[in-house]
Amino acid sequence: DAKTTQPNSMESNEEEPVHLPCNHSTISGTDYIHWYRQLPSQGPEYVIHGLTSNVNNRMASLAIAEDRKSSTLILHRATLRDAAVYYCILRDWRYGNKLVFGAGTILRVKS
Amino acid sequence: DGGITQSPKYLFRKEGQNVTLSCEQNLNHDAMYWYRQDPGQGLRLIYYSQIVNDFQKGDIAEGYSVSREKKESFPLTVTSAQKNPTAFYLCASTDRGRAYGYTFGSGTRLTVV
Lengths: 111, 113
Hints:
Radius of gyration of chain B: 13 Å
Order of helices and strands of chain A: EEEEEEEEE
Number of strands of chain B: 11
Number of helices of chain A: 0
Order of helices and strands of chain B: EEEEEEEEEEE
Helix content of chain A: under 10%
Largest sheet of chain A: 5 strands, mixed
Structural class of chain B: mainly beta
Strand order of the largest sheet of chain A: 1-9-8-3-4
Distance between the termini of chain B: 36 Å
Low-confidence stretches of chain A: none
Structural class of chain A: mainly beta
Mean pLDDT of chain B: 92
Low-confidence stretches of chain B: none
Strand content of chain A: over 45%
Radius of gyration of chain A: 13 Å
Oligomer: heterodimer
Number of strands of chain A: 9
Strand content of chain B: over 45%
Shape of chain B: globular
Largest sheet of chain B: 7 strands, mixed
Shape of chain A: globular
């Protein structure tokens, strides 16, 4: 399984943008980049995913490097409700669509 | 509303007992998954199923069993062979073969007493 590397934790101020980085240097051509977030004692919540092009949805934006070896999840205006663990995951649809979770990044948002 | 329902939310098990965790989805998803999460850790895959009557072991399948008799249901049995079953268990589903996101249930917290 292709691996991802994320910082253990990050801190942001409320109402400011947050850029959460992820390195995936062994990504293959069929891997989609997925992001999920998890609040304490809850199941992970899907945030966004992409293959090659940058993606936007109502929750966030995903910027993917041209060589696909890294990506950045962008929260445009952090709120206290965005404080969570954020997971960057590579999903290879050829092999059971498994998601392999790493430790993720703990995002703290200060008011 | 479509989603995944896990029950019960909290479960207590005596040592030596088998217990079954329920997972039901009404999303018409082909693939379903069971994950285990220990405090402060990421999720680890126990079992997954891409179609009815078929399932595969994940990374930590020992001491667990599953069945997939219906598309919407994927129950997980934690057997007495699982030496350290206290954990948070999460069920998920997704469309098979498509680049869709996973939908997760709200989890079952199992405690051995």
